[in-house]
Design brief:
Length: 140
């Protein structure tokens, strides 16, 4: 099924991006990628919101998003035009995605730390880049 990217692929690690694209394309459902690379300032805002009771977020510089090695996805829950977000992670579609990620040699699911829609590169910490990309001038 199609994968709909609602965010840019430009700042993602190319191998990681291809892995996510292929994984989601092979799924029988339509998945939307809603978040990809995040700069440190954006991550800091999300972490403040998390501390105030919002959606789960890591501190700036501690998220794979800051390195171009993570995305967040959501299931399109309807055949109606446009995204009909379905966050029911008990559905077979979500469980199937979790199993597909677990079977992938280079991808890791956020399920293990309570961030259901999160997909990241396996062992991303310190593996690919020493600092967040926007801090070393690679990304802005």
């Amino acid at each position: 099924m199609p994968v709909v990217w609602q965010c840019s692929k430009d700042k993602l690690d190319p191998t990681f991006c291809q892995d996510v694209d292929e994984l989601l394309t092979l799924r029988p459902e339509t998945w939307y990628v809603t978040s990809s690379f995040r700069g440190l300032a954006e991550q800091a805002v999300l972490y403040i919101r998390y501390q105030a009771g919002g959606a789960k977020a890591a501190p700036a510089g501690m998220s794979a998003h800051n390195f171009g090695l993570a995305v967040d996805v959501v299931l399109d829950g309807s055949m109606k035009p446009g995204l009909q977000m379905n966050w029911d992670t008990g559905l077979p579609a979500w469980l199937g995605l979790r199993a597909a990620i677990a079977a992938h040699p280079r991808l890791h699911s956020g399920w293990s730390f309570g961030d259901w829609p999160h997909i990241e590169a396996v062992n991303w910490k310190g593996k690919r880049y020493p600092k967040p990309l926007d801090r070393v001038g690679v990304m802005t």
